[in-house]
Amino acid sequence: MSDRYVPYAALTATQEARMREIYAASFPEALSAPFDDLLVDRMLGFVSGAHDAPLLGLALVRDFGDAGLGSGWTFLRYFAAGTRGDGVGSRMFTWLCDLLRSEGRSVLAWDVEDPDEPGIAAAEADLDRRRIGFYERNGGVLLPVHHYRPPHEDGHAPHLRLMASDLTGAGLPPTREVVLGVLEQRYGCGADHPAVREALASIPI
Asked: What is the DSSP string of 21-46?
């Protein structure tokens, strides 16, 4: 059996229905968008075995353009396995990095919820730390940016942390460049945007 990602347009009706179920169950309302709105980006379904095998998880990615800071990078908007504790998530992440690497992408970046956000429940903070640990075990790096609150489409700015993976073996760019590239190309923030200034100011010297 082989692992693979299937483009959204090639999913069977059963796989597509399962993808919607996984998405709805995996993300809190405050950090999710209507499913159909996601399809402006590249939605991929993860399967193991035949092309029409049961869907195991999803990844939604946005490839940055080929000009400006962040060119050739990819931003991981959503990533979710339908089950936990059985290694599917790690297989999914490995294959996603392999796919992007084969396409010539150099950096994969993504947001995670901040376990140190003031006022959150202990159980939620523990879940956030375990999520960060999952990515770190699979090669992700938690960047030293401690005030990272990118503006979202609905106007709120959640407490998040920024992570990234090097896809080339050359090492990640400096943290400042990753912050600038993500906030510009993912969130449309110019260098003078308050979210950019605050994030850069929180990077240790």
From this structure: HHHHHHS-GGG---GGGGGGSEEEEE
Q: Which amino acid is at 168?
A: T
Where residue 160 falls among pLDDT bands split at 50, 70, 90?
very high
Amino acid at 122: A
Residue 184, both tokens: 């510009």
* Predicted model pTM: 0.94
Tell me the residue ranges of DSSP E strands in the chain.
3-7, 42-48, 55-63, 73-81, 107-113, 141-142, 160-166
How far apart, in whole angstroms, are the C-alpha atoms of residue 191 and residue 128? Answer: 29
Cβ–Cβ < 8 Å for 46, 92: yes
Check: CB of residue 78 under 8 Å from CB of residue 59.
yes
Q: From the centroid of its chain, how far is CA 124? A: 19
Residue among 149, 141, 162, 142 at smallest CA distance from 197: 149
In this predicted structure, what is the pLDDT of residue 51?
81
With beta carbons less than 8 A apart as the criterion, state whether 167 and 108 touch: yes
